[in-house]
């Protein structure tokens, strides 16, 4: 179409996007490690006093 220009990303913009992907991947790895640590902690609590943990979720009197 006449009058419309197409803009193509320059090589520099591509490099910026690649550089931004690396910290995002590192953050995802850190988040995965945090979730794993939390799940391990939950497992430890359930192993030591699971009956007490479950009692906390039992409904009393139709609540």
Automatic annotation (TrEMBL):
GO molecular function: proteasome binding; protein tag activity
Low complexity bias (residue ranges): 19-28
Modified residues (Deamidated glutamine): 63
Covalent cross-link Isoglutamyl lysine isopeptide (Gln-Lys) (interchain with K-? in acceptor proteins), where: 63
A GO BP annotation: protein pupylation
Region (ARC ATPase binding): 20-57
Complex formation: Strongly interacts with the proteasome-associated ATPase ARC through a hydrophobic interface; the interacting region of Pup lies in its C-terminal half. There is one Pup binding site per ARC hexamer ring.
Domain notes: The N-terminal unstructured half of Pup provides a signal required to initiate unfolding and degradation by the proteasome but is not needed for pupylation, while the C-terminal helical half of Pup interacts with ARC to target proteins to the proteasome.
Family: Belongs to the prokaryotic ubiquitin-like protein family.
The name this protein goes by in its record: Prokaryotic ubiquitin-like protein Pup
Gene that this sequence comes from: pup
């Amino acid at each position: 179409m006449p009058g419309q220009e197409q803009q193509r990303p320059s090589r520099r913009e591509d490099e910026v996007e690649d550089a931004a992907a690396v910290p995002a991947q590192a953050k995802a790895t850190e988040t995965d490690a945090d979730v794993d640590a939390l799940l391990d902690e939950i497992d430890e609590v359930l192993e030591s006093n699971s009956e007490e943990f479950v009692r906390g979720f039992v409904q009393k009197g139709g609540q």
